[in-house]
Design a protein that fits this description.
Strand content of chain A: 15-25%
Structural class of chain A: alpha+beta
CATH class of the largest domain in chain A: Mainly Beta
Largest sheet of chain A: 6 strands, antiparallel
Order of helices and strands of chain A: HHEEEEEHEHHHHHEEH
CATH architecture of the largest domain in chain A: Sandwich
Largest interface: A-B, 43 and 42 residues
Oligomer: homodimer
CATH superfamily of the largest domain in chain A: Jelly Rolls
Amino acid sequence: MVGIKNNQSIPSCEECHATDHMIFKDLTPEQLDNVNYDKGCSFYKRGNIIFQEGHRINGFYCVHSGIVKMYKTGIDGKEQIIRFAKKGDIIGYRSVLSNELACTTSRVIEDATLCYIQGDTLITLIKENPAFAMQLMQLTCKELGEANNYITDIAQKTVRERLAEILLLLKDTFDLDENQVLQISLTREELANMVGTATESVIRLLSEFKQDKLIELQGRKIKILNLPGLKKIANF
Amino acid sequence: MVGIKNNQSIPSCEECHATDHMIFKDLTPEQLDNVNYDKGCSFYKRGNIIFQEGHRINGFYCVHSGIVKMYKTGIDGKEQIIRFAKKGDIIGYRSVLSNELACTTSRVIEDATLCYIQGDTLITLIKENPAFAMQLMQLTCKELGEANNYITDIAQKTVRERLAEILLLLKDTFDLDENQVLQISLTREELANMVGTATESVIRLLSEFKQDKLIELQGRKIKILNLPGLKKIANF
DNA sequence: ATCATAAACTGATAAATGTCAGTTTTTAGT
DNA sequence: ACTAAAAACTGACATTTATCAGTTTATGAT
């Protein structure tokens, strides 16, 4: 069955399906079709909130385009960015599976289209398709491993080392364009909220990196000049 | 089938099964019996290593008694303790599921008996028993949520706040005895490796907490005198 | 119970990072 | 292109935390 809802405004899962890390890659054509048919799609502008920490969500979202940041709100409302989601990534599934309230807020940082899929659909797929269940578990385990690494980094590395590491992470996640410029635009405050430091510290350290010819700065554009140098600073 | 291997030296899963957070609680009696039959058990003395970061493990362990610490080794060999495992907890399952090398080392801190279960057994159970699969996913999701909380804490709270929080965590995980003494014995260095700070800082801060009548210290025994006071410091 | 060893503790000092206040530049929306 | 608002930047200073070196005490194996 091909979903009759498919039209120009509702992108087909097929599009995301090409993405290599797509979670639905183990679904049968029929199962994928069902997801495609059941889902709802929305466009979100930069700054929009998809869901908020502490709220109940009954389904999860799949990012079709754009970039979403996931963060927790800590002391004095200071954000701690936990991760980003881009095309093919799913967000909110943790809350559906563990039946807990959302533990992060997700906010659009680059205009995005997201598909909403009912929690029941996820549960049904897990029961019907063990390969999909394994895929999902592996995703969760991978995220858990990364979280553990991040804990160790924040606990043991200096702010300088962590900032270098975050730049490398951003490079791996969002790539560089042909001029070696990071393909994501973040404010200094957002960088600080990833690193876990004060905005002023990020500003000062970026300037240092620039002076040391490791990077070049033009507004929010960050050009990577010396990758090995950054890796050395980050202890990689 | 009741496993013929069961004898005094090999504890039955039934014993752990009473533990409320036991992961195998959704198994059918037959499935539990299979696990019980297939498993191998070993006794480990304090200080023994169960498995090591970076090594391949083909199965996972279930703690029957004792306490195990899981840590990553960071800069200059400094440990970062990620979590503890006690009766009924399973360790190493993340590596089995994600098919990655172990991302932590696990070392016994209180003499322990652990059962070893083949990875295949876990995979089979996931495929056979969707309820168990869900249970396991929920465990992973819960750990992931906790990891995210921890990231935010380390990134935003002071060492003082984190130490108070760790004392509260230890209280919740290992309880207090009738004299309000923490039922786990950790060195100052281990506390520092949980908090993510220097040993000397933990020593000084514990002294401060003692002076402020929040706790009492006798060697490694920590007696909680003022729980609300600690919660206030930890921002809870 | 003893004893060697490891852990706990103390003080002095250095280094990293946070905070605050004010100025300049950039960004995003009309 | 214009412009208000937000973000980026700078410098001075405060605070926290780490480091180092040395002393005392507790631990756990025999």
